[in-house]
Design goal:
The protein is α+β, with helices and mostly antiparallel strands. The protein has 11 helices and 10 strands. The protein starts with a helix and ends with a helix.
């Protein structure tokens, strides 16, 4: 069974948009997440983008093919280790035209690499959504809602992680950042915010699945809380009943039941005859209020306290 993150990426990889600016923004974030630059003859530049998701590899290849005058290749590495996925490498062959592509994608400004700013391609709201969609495709992960709520974007670039953090903050997402084994992780841990993020990047099928699973989870949690509460109340009732019976038997042994006033003897005999009954049930049996039962049982407890002090 594929992970929930894989299901989300497979859905996102099927989405294509008419606006070229959005496709450019999505590809820019994808490459920032998973691409490395290569050097070719005469100091020409190329790109290698790696992913373990075939759908993401196809999406990246499709977006690259829309760019003019760049040649692409795809290689698949088959893992020999058990349960390890294939690795897909989408390459842009080094050429002079690649520099123009990198500048269009915001990865270069003139002859300098641009590592921390994509403001030129993030001016429109639709492009910001596409950019975050590309970031998720390139390095995102999200837990199934049956477990803990957690969505993250993982990158090896500190500057890019800060860019993603700032962008999500501006879009009012409750986002945090941490580092792990040389990577930088921008994360969201609130269920509502994760749903908003999935909807914002266009993963509508995943959003529906997440919402249904989360509702079922909350119902199960509510049922469990009620069961735990009932169990605790039952244990409390049993403990109280055991103590009350101990008190009554102590009185019976030391002073005898006949020594008790009629009202106290009546409730003592009812408790001995109904050891599992709640106070409400005892009240119905004797035809008096619950507070009256409680008051008489406290009197019996006080009698035992007085008897033990006199010993």
């Amino acid at each position: 069974m594929p992970s929930f993150a894989t299901e989300v990426k497979n859905e996102l990889a099927r989405l294509m948009y008419e606006e070229s600016c959005c496709r450019t923004a999505e590809l820019a974030a994808l490459l920032r997440m998973g691409a490395t630059m290569t050097l070719g003859p005469n100091r020409t530049l190329g790109l290698n983008f790696r992913t373990e998701n075939a759908a993401v590899a196809r999406k990246t290849l499709t977006l690259l093919k829309e760019m003019d005058h760049v040649r692409t290749e795809v290689m698949v590495s088959r893992s020999r280790r058990l349960k390890k996925n294939n690795s897909y490498c989408v390459s842009v062959v080094p050429s002079r035209e690649v520099s123009a592509l990198l500048e269009r994608l915001g990865l270069m400004h003139g002859e300098s690499f641009n590592v921390g700013s994509d403001s030129a391609i993030l001016r429109r709201q639709c492009c910001r959504r596409a950019y975050l969609r590309g970031a998720f495709l390139g390095g995102g992960s999200v837990n199934r809602p049956e477990g803990s709520y957690h969505l993250e974007l993982v990158t090896g670039s500190s500057a890019f992680s800060e860019l993603l953090l700032s962008l999500l903050h501006k879009m009012d997402f409750p986002v945090g950042i941490t580092d792990r084994k040389g990577d930088y992780i921008v994360y969201i841990k609130e269920g509502d915010a994760i749903m908003d993020f999935l909807g914002m990047i266009g993963a509508n099928e995943a959003l529906q699945s997440f919402e249904i699973a989360r509702n079922l989870k909350e119902i199960r949690n509510q049922v469990n809380r009620l069961v735990n509460c009932e169990t605790a109340n039952l244990q409390k009732t049993v403990n109280a009943s055991v103590k009350q019976i101990e008190n009554i038997r102590y009185i019976a042994v030391h002073d005898g039941m006949q020594s008790l006033p009629e009202q106290l003897r009546e409730v003592a005999e009812a408790r001995l005859a109904n050891p599992d009954a709640t106070l409400s049930e005892l009240a119905k049996i004797l035809g008096i209020g619950k507070s009256g039962i409680n008051h008489r049982l406290r009197k019996l407890a006080k009698l035992v306290e007085d008897l033990t002090e006199g010993e």
